[in-house]
């Protein structure tokens, strides 16, 4: 059974706050990379491209974690909780809206080997 967790966190900054929010998210990367179960933790920004014309929030965090417990432990770190309290929950924060989702790469009917 695949234990990996994929997290996509999309952020809509308040007007004029895109660069400040991007930098605040970048500041989270170094400590997340220190976590043993962090396989990928990268903040990205939307770019225009004629081959990908979908719509999304302008800033997206891509995360891959070795397992669910590691992802959930990461979410409970003080630095992460403080980020959301300061930038999303606070009235003067930089985030207008956020959409954080987690995914598995395991098919519903996968007959995972028992180890």
UniProtKB/TrEMBL annotation:
Organism in which the protein naturally occurs: Halomonas salipaludis
Keyword tRNA processing listed: no
Pfam families: ABM
Protein name, UniProt field: Antibiotic biosynthesis monooxygenase
ABM domain location: 5-103
InterPro entries found in the cross-reference section: ABM_dom, Dimeric_a/b-barrel
Keyword check for Oxidoreductase: yes
Origin: domain of life: Bacteria
Lineage of producing organism: Bacteria, Pseudomonadati, Pseudomonadota, Gammaproteobacteria, Oceanospirillales
UniProt keyword list: Monooxygenase, Oxidoreductase
A single GO molecular function term of this UniProt record: monooxygenase activity
